[in-house]
Please model this.
Amino acid sequence: MEPRVFIENRTFDEIETGETATLARTLSTADIELFAVMSGDVNPAHVDVQYAHSDVFHTIIAHGMWGASLISTLLGTKLPGPGTIYLEQTLRFRRPVTVGDTITVSVTATAKDSERPRITFECRCVNQRDETVIDGVANVIAPTEKVRRPRVVLPEVHLLEHGVLFRELLARTETLEPIRMAVVHPVDRDTLLGAVQAAQEGLIIPVLVGPEERIRSVAAAHDVAIDGLSLIATEHSHEAAERAVALARSGQVDALMKGSLQTDELMSAAVAVHIGLATDRRMSHVSVMDVPTYARPLFITDTASNIEPDLAAKQDIVQNAIDLALAVGVETPKVAILSAIGTVNPKLRSSLEAAVLAKMAERGQIVGGVVDGPLAFDDAVSPATARVRGIASPVTGRADIVVVPDLESGAMLVQQLGALGDSQAAGIVLGGRVPIVLTSRADSPLGRVASCALAVLVARAAPWWRGRPGG
Model:
């Protein structure tokens, strides 16, 4: 157990004129970001790297009040310490403080007023080159009673920026032409709005397929502008799915998006023999997760299509995910085949199949990525956990793709990352003639647009990733 640390004040009577206290802090990028979040001060000189390079200092600088807050820290915790009441502070900002600067703060008692009791302090902040960056004078009411208290242990603060990886994904589509996308049975606000937003982003040219009266009614009720969009009228969702698949099969659209109908209904039309979108590759779903605590997009498969895939299906599931990661720009994707444990157990089918898939990749039956398994999920994404367990692998701790044993485990993993990990998901089905965007009512607007970006990247990718047309 760590020994308790105390803070103790200096009372008015104990402080002598000329007495000094100091502290030092080194400015980090996180300090600037945290101060901006706390204060709401998003002056681009502090938080916009591109702008900062063009201004007078040519780099990000700290908020002036960050340095001033260190003076307050010194007065409130050391001299005089607990019980001090701030009355007045004057400040002069002499030089900017940049990331990496070490600031030493000093306060020196210069005058005492015994009648009230008040003390005047000269305050100064200098950098590692002994240059003054801030100076001024503080007047305080000093404590008259001794205070000694345990130092409060503050919570750790982790700054998480949401949506960064999805915005990078969108940036990769900026030079690509939009694709024609059939939006199947869009009779709810979220689907219509997602399609319109993706069109505004220049990702897709929507073709709405479904009951015309219901679509227009929903659009009017929610002020979603669909004027000018192509609309193919059908009587019901089943017909909408069949018409959309026919459009894709004939090359009139480049991708599909699920609207307000069951996934099974759309996928049944997509895999229908002779009239669907099947190829010699098994279709599978990939959830692409933007996890704030993970440094890269996390591809999780299969989370919505294959319920209990066998080994042959898993081979295609792995290959589809690798192909998607390559299309998105991941160089040599690292694939973790998940099981409950990181060793092969003959009684645990998922561990056996994981080992076989890893060997298949080693022999060239799966290409484009580095595959290892079986691995537990924490081994796949946590370098520290993998080190503790002594698992040496190029995949552990930095997996791009995790392949789950079955749909149940995959769906629960995605839901857990969303509900407890504050993550966002995009989703797409691969392996057919065209990519299929599967949206969920729980998807964020950015997640929906990101799903369309995935479809664009896949549709515009070189055709090597696709399976050959089948029945």
Summary: The chain has two domains: 6-150, 164-465. The chain is about 35% helix and 25% strand.
